[in-house]
Design goal:
The protein has 259 residues and is of the alpha/beta class. Helix 2 packs parallel to helix 4, helix 3 runs antiparallel to helix 4 and helix 6 packs across helix 9. The longest helix has 22 residues. The chain binds adenosine-5'-triphosphate. The site of adenosine-5'-triphosphate has 12 residues, from strand 2 and helix 1. Pfam families: ABC_tran.
């Protein structure tokens, strides 16, 4: 059984006078432990689809099942990492990380130990008593990921989590996030505008067409890239071949939108 199953998703936004169809007939499956990316022209409905998967928006038509249950019954199984870290500035790094567990009523010693091991793995040991403003943007994003992983979500939604970072920090964080998610066998969906990031980090890439967003094509990332770190994948010859393919396909979708 797939971890996540979307079947016939269709979504329109309605006002009193207008209807905007954002998504049309999206069906896809994501397996446990897979890392997939959602790519597509601006406005093709990626954020709408993430919100539907998270159970924040009920689709006009279609179903979303996580581990065979409707998402409305599984909201606590989903974790987020967003473009902004949304850490509480008045709380220390440790307090920020443990907050999700506290709110969820699962602040047990085994969970605290797990959070501490994540903190160490993300290179944040020694920063527990510091405050967000004392950390760099890349470090704050690492704290945000630890806070998310600490609640042990089944599915992680990564909504452009690297797009506000400088290029070098972004490349380093891609490696660290990829390594951490692989080592814990986590399933993740990355929304990005960066084709290279999608190729370097994913097992599969879902390419959506312009509004209304439809699943246009799925690209399988070849094994020789998947076994490398994202940084090393970017330097492999197969990477450029796939980059060209995805680029051309995306460009054709964007030019269709303009006419
Ligand atoms: N609350 C809303 N009410 C009406 N229309 C909306 C609403 N939210 C999104 N839309 C429309 O639905 C379409 C899809 O929007 P969405 O934000 O999901 O796309 P996206 O692919 O995430 O965009 P981007 O890549 O620019 O972030 C767009 O045309 C947008 O204008």
């Amino acid at each position: 059984m797939s971890l996540l199953k979307l079947d016939g998703i269709h979504h329109s936004y309605f006002t009193q006078t207008t209807a905007t169809t954002a998504l049309s007939d999206i069906s896809l499956d994501i397996e446990e432990g897979e890392f997939v990316s959602f790519l597509g022209p601006s406005g093709c409905g990626k954020t709408t689809l993430l919100s539907i998967i998270a159970g924040l928006i009920k689709p006009t038509e279609g179903t979303v099942m996580l581990e065979g249950q409707s998402v409305q019954e599984s909201v606590n199984k989903i974790g987020y990492m967003l473009q902004q870290d949304y850490l509480f500035p008045w709380k220390s790094i440790e307090e920020n990380i443990l907050l999700g567990l506290k709110i969820g009523g699962t602040l047990k010693s085994s969970k605290i130990e797990y959070a501490k091991s994540l903190l160490e793995q993300m290179g944040l040991k020694g920063f527990e008593t510091q405050y967000p403003k004392q950390l760099s943007g890349g470090m704050r994003q690492r704290v945000a990921l630890v806070r998310t992983l600490a609640t042990e979500p089944k599915l992680l939604m990564l909504d452009e989590p690297f797009s506000a970072l400088d290029y070098q920090t972004k490349l380093k964080l891609e490696d660290l996030v990829s390594d951490t998610l692989k080592s814990y066998g986590k399933t993740a969906i990355l929304v990005t505008h960066d084709i290279g990031e999608a190729i370097a980090m994913s097992d599969r890439i879902f390419l959506f067409s312009a509004r209304p967003g439809k699943l246009h094509r799925t690209f399988l990332v070849p094994d020789e890239l998947r076994k490398l770190t994202p940084f090393n994948a970017r330097n492999h010859e197969t990477y450029s071949v796939l980059f060209q393919k995805v680029w051309k396909e995306l460009e054709s979708l964007e030019s269709r939108e303009e006419h």
